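Collaborator request, handled under Task 6.
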Amino acid sequence: MTRLVDLPDLVLRPFADRPDAAWYVAPPGKWNSAQIVEHLAMGIEWSAVGFDERRSRDPMVRRPRSAGQRLAKVLVMHLGWFPRGVTAPSGAIPTPSVDRVVAEHRFRHAVQRHQEVAQLLLPARARDLFLKHPRMGDLTLAEWIEFHIRHARHHVRQMWERMPG
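Structure tokens returned to the collaborator:
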């Protein structure tokens, strides 16, 4: 089982012995691996900041999920399936030219920041603090961590497919 702290190894391992150019290979119209790492970092940063900002709030109650949100949660969180054609939220779209060193650093820092927030909030705020996911509705910190792990695995498969030779 992967933990959030293991994500840097999972995501960055494909490039351990590869030249820098491997980071920038992508099919036309698709993100290269540097952009994927940046995308993952942006999402992890966003949820870390969101939970950090909410940590002093009174206990919250999860809002009811719509049918679409319930379906999205089953597909992603239970089946690990990310439907094709679903676009990333605007705040998680990487720029066209992402430097791999910057992306790698940002990713490692985002994971570290998320770990720090989790240590502050868990287990005390495990069931009464939520942050809205754009497709699945309100998620707890533990659910966000699980999402980030599943999301990273999804993109790691894409990165391996883009890996030259």
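The cover message to the collaborator said: "The mean pLDDT is 95. The chain has one domain: 4-162. Please let us know whether this matches your experimental observations."
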